[in-house]
Give the backbone structure.
Amino acid sequence: MRGIVKETGFDPERIAINSNKFMTGNGYMGYRGTMEEFGKEQLVAVNLAGLYDKVGELWREPVNAPNGLYLTVSVDGEKLNVLESELGSHAQQLDIANGLHTRETEFRLSGGSRVALRTERFVSMDQLHLMALKATIRADQDCRLVIETGIDGDVWDINGPHLELYQTVETDGVLSVQAQSQELKVPVAVTEMCQVSGGEGGGETTVLAEKTALRRIAVSCKAGEEISLTKFTAVYTGLDAEADIAAAADGAVRA
């Protein structure tokens, strides 16, 4: 199919290659083609255009923003991760024409059940500060899910760290991580909000740490039932006319 780049199977040796191969962006920022459960060790990055930083005598390089699309899923206490879990199948795809990244993974749990995770995400061309993600989860047995999602501010960089003076905030259901670049003291603000549908809710807890703002959502679901999560995240910096947390929060809400 024209305009579709696809790779099946998971090979940890191809993480760096695929993070470039499946990258999405809009000119303001780019999101590397990594898995939602990955962190800085797996080269997750929200690349910001035009914002650079220099630490000490190391060379100056672009600054990466905190990751507002972070997402992990645990099923009956077993965390799903392509690096550690047994996989029934895995595929990663980029629709170049529409700028849509898709991931489909079937996990085989130690207890014998199978869980399908599908995610779709894009970096908006209409609203340059916006990224969005939809995740659907389906298990073949009754189970209890714990979804952990939010903003991971433990940023990957080569010659950093480039961000300092972190602040993590939760206001009216909107999570925020704020920091500033080291050299020029340029602020960077990322906000996130999400909604879960399906299953029987078991409550949500907000966890604010030094660099991360996360929510833990517990859901009980029946065999074959689809649980859906939709999330929006907005990114602003001090190079923008609206570079403050209120503007970033407004961008997430309007999405």
The two ends are 31 Å apart (CA to CA). Confidence is low (pLDDT under 50) at residues 251-255.
